[in-house]
Every structure is written in structure tokens, then in C-alpha cells.
Amino acid sequence: DSDLSMRTLSTPSPALIFPPNSPGFQNGRGSSTSSSSVTGETVAMVHSPPPTRLTHPLIRLASKHQKEQANIDRLPDHSMIQIFSFLPTNQLCRCARVCRRWYNLAWDPRLWRTIRLTGETINVDRALKVLTRRLCQDTPNVCLMLETVIVSGCRRLTDRGLYTIAQCCPELRRLEVSGCYNISNEAVFDVVSLCPNLEHLDVSGCSKVTCISLTREASIKLSPLHGKQISIRYLDMTDCFVLEDEGLHTIAAHCTQLTHLYLRRCVRITDEGLRYLMIYCTSVKELSVSDCRFVSDFGMREIAKLESRLRYLSIAHCGRITDVGIRYIAKYCSKLRYLNARGCEGITDHGVEYLAKNCTKLKSLDIGKCPLVSDTGLEFLALNCFNLKRLSLKSCESITGQGLQIVAANCFDLQMLNVQDCEVSVDALRFVKRHCKRCIIEHTNPAFF
Q1: Which of the two residues, 187 and 39, has the higher pLDDT score?
Q2: Could you report the per-residue pLDDT of 46-66, keeping only the tens digit for each?
Q3: CB of 375 closer than 8 Å to CB of 349
Q4: I need a surface site. Which of 55, 245, 257, 420 has the fewest CB within 10 A?
Q5: What domains does the chain contain, in order, with CATH numbers?
């Protein structure tokens, strides 16, 4: 009787998406769909809402009896919506096919703040088109409730799918397209230009993405008032192999509000790119340049300009970083909580000493595969960093049980210790377990249980 009920009679509903061999298909066809299946792929299907009543009296009687036995039908609408809120997008669309009541509940706007699609075979471009069309029916061509789109791992996503999002979802705040290697700069530019509230962007593994910027049209339009700024705060460009210093310069100039930036395995980034970054992005709290082999101590000097704002830093496997770079970080970034320096073989006990004495609030430290760090460095850590919770010493060949005992005797809150491939005795491991009762020890000593 409501407007909603009347509207759903003539509105198609997308059910995402059954592979051809799923229970929803018989002999390669869906029993209640209006679109055909494509062999070997998953597609978006459109179906009408379930009928209100069944015409055959016997079938109607059986249906009524089943309804009386179904306890879930006794739940109020708000409880059903709460249950539906935990379902991924494709399952929510399946629920819309059960009955009219579930159809109406499944399309409650509160459930459509997020679209989450997964799977390498899904035709995600078509799925996004069908979903946004359904969600835009109350506000033509604009989907005001959708804030999050997660399509990570959907390798069939192309620029066409991102164009759909950009055109229909102006209130988008979070977009994750990691592993979607078919998307290009142009589509990403469209999203950041047409979705001014976008704060979280994950394009990790998108090898064609070399920059984050506004489109030329948006840049001209916004320049007088907004200074060509993008509101992104969280940006993950891990494994964007073709990102270079010039691209990082453009990103920094447009995304000045960045607080979280991950550039893992962006192998073309150098110290010059980090210099550009520190000129514009002075609010960065978390930064990762792991496996950026051209980053050196000069880059650490630039990063140190973040001072007390920096809380998380990963420089793993940056072989050009030595004690000099660590001293820069320790001297200026006194509120550092997490440091991953695994594989930085130029770090010695002197660097660890300076770090321990200046970053006393350190909670997590990874100095695995640093062969020049010994028990002396561990002693400095134990006597200064009492809040240490996670410590990785994997493959530190100069570490012995004596250093571990000093750490365990002073860092009672230790929760994780990695001493794999280290020459430490069983007695030392038992000592750690005795003093740090909540500590999980990762080791390769078969005699210790």
C-alpha cells in the first residue's frame, strides 16, 4: 500500500551474480531473470520483485504453512535490516529474490552506503552499472547514499566501471580498486574530480596508474576557489611500479591533506620525490617507502621534516639507508611508534642506540636481517623503550640469548617476538616466556615448545 511497494512493482532489481554452475542456474539459465548468462563468466542479472501471492490453492497452503514455520519472518523490520547489513553486495541481492518483504528491506537506503564486489570472473563494469541505475531511481542519475565502493581483485574492472562511479556517486568517500590492473590515469582523474569528498583511495597493484590529479576541465573550474586541491587523506599506491618522482610531485601538489601514504615497491621513487612530498604534505602520519631501493639517508633527512607528526615509518629493504638516516628520524620524530627497517643492512648498534634514546614511545620495531645489530643494541632498547610490544629480530645473526633476556626483563608488555633463524638457546626462550606471559614467540628452534 505504501509508495515503496507501488514503486517496486515496476522497478527491476539486480541480483549479482551467480556463476553458471551455481544453484541459481539450471542448464545454464536463470529461472527468474531477464538477462542471459555468459559461459565462463559472472554477470549482473535483472529480475522483478517476487509476486505477492501464488494462484494455485495447494501451493498457497504449503507456502502459508512454511511461513508459519520460519522464525526469521517473525523478526521486525529493523532487526532484518541489521542482519542484512552484514551481507556482501551479491548476497544482499540474492535476499531480494526471496519474497516481497525481503525485496523491500534489501533495498533500504541504509544498506547501500557500501558496494563490495569480489571475484576475478565477475563482469564488474556491468554490475556497477546495474546497481547504480537501481540506486539512482529516486534521484535520477545521482546516487546520494553510496559512500564506499570496494572492488579489489576484480580484474575485469575497466575505465568504464570507474566512469560509472564518477558520474553517479558524487558523495563517494572511499574507493578500493587494488589489483585492478586495467584501469588508467584518466578514469582515476575522473573519480577524484567528480567525487570531491573522496578521502580514501587504494590503487595498489594498478600498474597503469602513474599519478593522482584532477582532470583538465575540473582543474580549470576549481582553480580560482579551491587551488586545485583533492581531499584525499589515505592513498595506497603499493606496486604502482611506473610511479616516478614527477608523478609523486603532482600527487603531493594536489593532495596536500594526505595523512597516510604507502609507496611500497614503487621502485622508481628517489630522494628527490620525497623532497617534493615534504614540501606540500606536512601532515603525513604514516609513510611507507619499503623496497624503494633508490631512497637513501638524504631521503630520511627529508622525511624527518615531518617531526612529531610522524608515527609510522616503513623503510624495509632500502639498502642505502644507514645509521645516518636513522639518526635524522630519531632526532626529529620523537613520537614515532612503528619502525620497519628490516633488511637495512647499514644499520648498526649505534643507530639502534640513538633510536632507543630519542623515540622512547616506540611500540613496534622490525630490525630483522640487520647483521650488524647485536646484544648491545638490544640492551639500549630494553633500557629505554619500556612500551615495546612487537620486536622482530629475524635472521639477526649477531643476536644471542643474553640480549633477549635483557629485553624480556625490562619490556613486560612484549606481545610478539620474532627470533627465527637466530642462534638463541632454549633457556633464553623460556626466560622470555616466563617474564612476558602474553608474548607470542616465533622461532625455528625445534627443542622449544
Answers
A1: 187
A2: 445 555 544 445 445 455 555
A3: no
A4: 55
A5: 74-110 (1.20.1280), 295-448 (3.80.10.10)
